[in-house]
Write a structure and sequence with these properties.
There is one protein chain. The protein is of the alpha+beta class and about 150 residues long. The protein has a single domain, classed as Nucleoside diphosphate kinase-like domain (Alpha-Beta Plaits). The protein is about 40% helix and about 20% strand. It has a four-stranded antiparallel β-sheet with strand order 2-3-1-4, sandwiched between helices.
Length: about 150
Amino acid sequence: MTERTLILIKPDGVQRLLVGRILARYEERGLKILGLKLLRADRALAERHYAVHRGKPFYAGLVEFITSGPLVALAVEGPNAIAVARATNGATRPVEAGPGTIRGDFALEVAQNIVHASDAAETAESELAIWFRPDELVEYGRDIDHWVLAADD
């Protein structure tokens, strides 16, 4: 099932010069990039993104961190893209993330765990709408897709 999802390379990933290496991991898995931008999230954007956590003890820290520096917002598409992106990221707690995952290889703490990926189809849809306008997502075919994706039955 082809899905779309949002991935954020958080400010720690940008500051640690990991953007290219992280992007490569999603592309190497076969996910297709539909949208990509470097930006600095303002407080209003961060609060919309983390609205589900409003009122929780860690909410203020989330907003403060995501607005602390530039980040990369990424819209990707592919079969089971949500699960694939989350598996590529690894467990939220880096100590539980396996080797070969982004968090398992690059992160030590939950507060600075390098990346975010939507956790469900509904979340992906709403998060993509927060970070990308429809005209910022580019539809295109890829010549490699017949090598990466199964033929439709």
